[in-house]
UniProtKB/TrEMBL annotation:
Protein name listed in UniProt: 16S rRNA (cytosine(967)-C(5))-methyltransferase
Recorded GO MF terms: RNA binding; rRNA methyltransferase activity
Subcellular location: Cytoplasm
Stretches for region Disordered: 1-70
Claim: Transferase is one of the keywords in the record: yes
Pfam families hit by this protein: Methyltr_RsmB-F, NusB, RsmF-B_ferredox
Reaction catalysis annotation: cytidine(967) in 16S rRNA + S-adenosyl-L-methionine = 5-methylcytidine(967) in 16S rRNA + S-adenosyl-L-homocysteine + H(+)
Protein origin, superkingdom: Bacteria
Main location: cytoplasm
SUPFAM superfamilies assigned to the protein according to its UniProt record, in alphabetical order: NusB-like, S-adenosyl-L-methionine-dependent methyltransferases
Function: Specifically methylates the cytosine at position 967 (m5C967) of 16S rRNA.
Length: 527
């Protein structure tokens, strides 16, 4: 088993940046599947508790108060909604935690159980198939999710006693199902407990097929393992997989119109938070370890900082917008990159922040209001049709943070491993091509087109840009346009695509470079 057991290290309530919820990256077009839930029954299965319905007479006793869900029950409900309904793990979990009333420790356990179980699903299923002779076909979704979650606790969490994990699973099975289910859970999990030393030590070194060995060791689908090995080699591919299984850290982008990274760092440390300047983006970023819900801090409310992944911060910085520029952000929601560009422009000039979904205009507008930025105008429309609404060649800078497969944000949305396919990459690449063609028409001669994704797929990144340049000879990559302060930390950290020998104006950040999201960023100039 790679990585060894660990205690719950994920931060409950941490709000992801652009690369997470509702972003212009993975999952832009999807919905979270809702946050309503049934209490007292199996997720989507059992009905309301007896006697809880209408029709009570005046003399009837009041219904008993519903018991709050435990951390494990909350995690189980979230896992079922993700696997059965296609809900996004981050949206589903955050919504459930906000109304749960769980302590911070229990919220941390629930968070670890959801993300860890999703991340290790393939390996967990490999082991469970050895213990369940009849296979998974007849198991209800909640039962399979409960087995996966319980085995994850046994193998990967060193602070959860084995008896506690087994007993809680059996009790949940009894409450939500029947005696037969609880008996089966007890038998399977106790069998796993007897083999825990072997399971914890397993590295699958005996597997002769390299792709299958790494797939089982790190719990990634074989098609993705093979793709990464072909693109990057075994050593780098395995580092990418290991990093993708680590909990994401929280990072803040400092609003330099109101404070400096150094001043913000001091304020956070004085508040008792374990904070440091970002390695990837020290010019604007601060990393906070185990900071909890940073959207609840005074500095967030006062517009001193925003929550954004370090890699995502580099996008607007690479665009290098200047005061007075006219800027178009084609796929803007929830507004983090538009806000960052407005900060860099010192609030001077104009930013049109467009998104496909009208209801997301409010997200962009609320970001701008919180940060005190008056030069952002939120609009709604299809990014492929923006050339029909704005004058051609009328923007100094056009940012296309394109919808993508999201393979760079697996640590934040681990279900991507199991929901994406090679066909999805091909389909989204076709959409990106159309968006690039449309966006490029709006760039002034001498202006900048900045293209970014939060993926690691070459078809969506380097190949996409190469194909675009072949069709558009009036554009070229623009390495000289990147600010030196943006490139210097990347080169110091040994990011190969940023090195002076390799840098051509496009950058591929991998998850292991800084423990941040995998991002591709290409700066192009219209000649």
């Amino acid at each position: 088993m790679s990585g060894g057991p660990r205690s719950g290290r994920r931060e409950p309530g941490a709000t992801p940046g652009k690369a997470g919820v509702g972003s212009g990256s993975a999952g832009r077009q999807g919905a979270a599947g809702g946050t309503a839930r049934r209490r007292g029954g199996a997720p989507g299965g059992k009905g309301a508790a007896p006697g809880a319905g209408p029709g009570r007479g005046p003399g009837a006793s009041a219904p008993r108060a519903r018991q709050p869900r435990s951390a494990r029950e909350l995690a189980l409900d979230a896992l079922v909604r993700v696997s059965r309904d296609g809900a996004y793990s981050n949206l589903q979990l955050n919504a459930a935690l906000q109304e749960s009333g769980l302590s911070r420790a229990d919220a941390g356990l629930a968070t670890e159980l959801v993300y860890g179980t999703l991340q290790r699903r393939l390996t967990l299923d490999h082991w469970l198939q050895q213990f369940i002779t009849k296979g998974f076909a007849k198991l209800e979704p909640w039962v399979l999710s409960l087995l996966r979650m319980s085995l994850y606790q046994l193998v990967y969490l060193d602070r959860v006693p084995a008896h506690a994990a087994v007993n809680e699973a059996v009790n949940i099975g009894r409450r939500r199902g029947h005696a037969g289910i609880s008996s089966m859970l007890n038998g399977v999990l106790r069998n796993a407990v007897r083999q825990l030393p072997q399971l914890k030590a397993e590295t699958f070194a005996g597997e002769t097929n390299e792709v299958r060995r790494l797939s089982l060791r790190h719990s990634y689908p074989e098609w993705l393992v093979g793709r990464w090995i072909s693109a990057y080699g075994v050593e780098t591919a395995e580092a990418m997989m290991e990093s993708g299984n680590e909990p994401p850290h929280s990072s803040l982008r400092i609003n330099r119109l109101r404070t400096s990274p150094e001043q913000a760092l001091l304020q956070l440390q004085q508040a008792g938070l374990n904070a440091r300047l970002s390695d990837a983006a020290p010019w604007a970023g601060v990393v906070v370890a185990r900071g909890g819900n940073l959207a609840g801090t005074d500095g967030y409310t006062e517009g001193l900082w925003s929550i954004q992944d370090e890699s995502s911060m580099i996008v607007a910085a690479a665009a290098d917008p200047r005061p007075g520029f006219r800027v178009l952000d084609c796929c803007a929601a929830p507004g983090g990159k538009s806000a960052h560009m407005a900060e860099l422009m010192e609030g001077k000039g104009e930013i049109i922040a467009n998104d496909l979904h009208p209801h997301k205009q409010a997200l962009v507008e609320s970001q701008a209001a919180r940060l005190g930025l008056s030069n952002i105008q939120a609009v709604s429309g299809d990014a492929a049709e923006l050339a029909e609404h704005f004058a051609l060649a009328s923007f100094d800078l056009v940012l296309l943070d394109a919808p993508c497969s999201g393979l760079g944000v697996i640590r934040r949305k681990p279900e991507i491993k199991w929901t994406k396919t090679p066909d999805d990459i091909e389909a989204i690449a076709a959409i990106q091509e159309r968006l690039l063609d449309s966006a490029s028409c709006l760039v002034k001669p001498g202006g900048t087109l900045l293209y970014s994704t939060c993926t690691i797929a070459e078809e969506e990144n380097g190949k996409q840009i190469a194909d675009f340049l072949a069709k558009h000879p009036d554009f070229s990559l623009d390495p000289e346009g990147w600010p030196a302060e943006v490139l210097e930390p990347l080169r110091s950290a040994g990011v190969e695509s940023a090195s002076a020998d390799h840098f051509d104006g496009a950058l591929q950040l991998l998850p292991q470079h800084f423990g941040s999201d995998g991002f591709y960023i290409a700066r192009l100039k219209r000649i």
